[in-house]
């Protein structure tokens, strides 16, 4: 009887691992790419050495769109860049075609004004990044 119990436990353990390993593999290899990021608009600095990229992050139907702003060198593309500004549309209240209404103006090569819809819910507003000074205004 004990031999039968041990066989059942060994079988169930092996079956659990056989199910668990593929699930973990799928989660790590495909789960991290469920979001898509699309560059919407670029704003070049007066000296054209840098640019601000306005992008939209879409992680599927169960989450709100996220509008993000990144500062990059002119020849770079968005990969894992630090986020300067990030906001949600607050369930479509503050967006047009999935992107929050945002205006970007370079005052100098280091100073920037970012104006955005007052209805947007933001949770990241860096006032400086890599030597750039940023001022935010809601409208």
List key phrases describing it.
139 residues, 2 domains, 1 helix, 5-stranded antiparallel β-sheet, 11 strands, alpha+beta, 4-stranded mixed β-sheet
Residue ranges: pLDDT <50 for 5 or more in a row? none
Shape: elongated
Please tell me the total number of domains: 2
Q: How large, in whole angstroms, is the Cα Rg?
A: 23 Å
Q: Which structural class matches the secondary elements? A: alpha+beta
Question: Helix fraction?
Answer: 10-25%
Strand order of the largest sheet: 1-2-3-4-9
Number of discrete helical segments: 1
Transmembrane segments: 7-28
Keywords: Membrane, Transmembrane, Transmembrane helix
Explain how this protein is built.
The structure is a single chain. With 139 residues, the chain is of the alpha+beta class. It has two domains: 2-32; 35-138. The chain has one helix and eleven strands, in the order αβββββββββββ. The protein has one helix spanning 2-30; strands spanning 36-44, 50-58, 66-73, 85-88, 95-96, 99-100, 102-106, 111-116, 121-125, 128-129, 132-138. The strands form three sheets. Strands 1-2-3-4-9 form a five-stranded antiparallel beta sheet, with no helix packed on it. Strands 7-8-11-10 form a four-stranded mixed beta sheet, with no helix packed on it. Strand 7 and strand 8 form a beta hairpin. It is elongated. The model has no long low-confidence stretch (mean pLDDT 79). The chain crosses the membrane at residues 7-28. Keywords: Membrane, Transmembrane, Transmembrane helix.
């Amino acid at each position: 009887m004990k031999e039968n119990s041990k066989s059942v436990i060994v079988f169930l353990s092996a079956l659990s691992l056989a199910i668990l390993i593929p699930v973990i593999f799928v989660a790590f290899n495909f789960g991290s790419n469920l979001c898509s990021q699309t560059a919407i608009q670029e704003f070049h600095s007066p000296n054209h050495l840098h640019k601000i990229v306005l992008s939209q992050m879409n992680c599927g139907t169960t989450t709100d769109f996220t509008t993000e702003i990144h500062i990059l060198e002119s020849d770079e593309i968005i990969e894992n860049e630090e986020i300067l500004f990030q906001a949600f549309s607050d369930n479509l209240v503050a967006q047009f075609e999935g992107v929050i209404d945002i205006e970007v103006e370079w005052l100098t090569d280091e100073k920037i004004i970012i104006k955005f819809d007052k209805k947007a819910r933001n949770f990241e507003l860096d006032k400086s990044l890599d030597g750039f000074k940023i001022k935010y205004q809601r409208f």
